[in-house]
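Hi P.,

Sorry for the delay on this. The queue was packed all week, but I finally got your sequence through. Input first:
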Amino acid sequence: MKIKNNNTGEIMDALFSRIEQRKKTKKKGSYTAFLFNKGINKIAQKISEETAETIIEAVQGKKKLVVQESCDLLYHLIVMWSKLGINPNEIWNELDKRMKKKGKKK
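Then the structure:
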């Protein structure tokens, strides 16, 4: 999947759609389907692991590895959102509200 102009929204939407598809089809051999089958505890465990790995690489100043671990972390976070029935737009709307609140405080 090649994304034109590196559009972040398009990338996130495509990833979320793929994750939702795997949740519905439970495609054999799919890591995403495996996570859904294992449940929220396994998904949370993976988020914890990926968070720690991202932090370790950041502390060591390994930018390329931080990028890679951040991708893993985001993927698992989106799997968790999907498992809980959260659409990424809910996250973006909340971030937008918070940014507007911070702007008003100044």
